[in-house]
Amino acid sequence: MELITIKDIAKALNLSTSTVSRALRGSYEINPDTKKLVIEYAEKYNYRPNPIALSLKENKSRSIGVIVPEIDNPFFSQVINGIEAISYNRGYHVVIFQSHESFERESINLKHIASRRVDGLLISLAGETNDVSQLKELHEKGMPIVLFDRVSDEINTHKVISDNFEGAFTATEHLIREGRRRIAHITASPYLSITKERVKGYIAALNKYEIPVDETMIKYSNYSSENMELIIDELLSETQPPDGILTVSDRLALGCLATLKAKKITIPEQISIVGFTNLKAASMLEPALTTVVQPSLQMGQRSAELLLDLIERKSSSIPPTYQTFKLYTELIIRESSVVG
Question: What are the boundaries of the signal sequence (predicted)?
Answer without folding.
Answer: none
